[in-house]
Specification:
Oligomer: single chain
Shape: globular
Number of helices: 5
Number of strands: 3
Structural class: mainly alpha
Largest sheet: 3 strands, parallel
Amino acid sequence: MRTTMLRFTAPLLAAACAMALAVPALAETKVPGDPHADDPVGIVADPCPTHEKPSDEAAWKLWNLHMRTRDFGQLCRYAAANKAIEGQKVRVVFMGDSITDNWINLDPTMFQNGLVDRGISGQTTQQMLVRFRNDVIALKPQAVH
């Protein structure tokens, strides 16, 4: 009985999994007016193409929407900065949301001598977990705040 049930349900389960995995590819979001809509998505050779910083509020809003739909965890936000400090001794990584993100604006001298700011305004715990390996673990800090 059990073997018969497995023979019947295994193909159905496999088909359901295949369909579930295909859905995200079909759900790609393109926003009208997004100047970076043609950026590659998924597993690509250059997952973090560089763009100039937006110059006005409308451009910032569009850039934020682009980032949320193309880079949920914002892995690209600190990719270049992480590469720049490869091999350097990192004492403490400050990981967080807007409060942590803005510390560097209030006192840029704070983040020297192995202290690294990796805050991103508006981030949720889920987004921080997505980037924790790249922005914290890979830097091999002595401590995380």
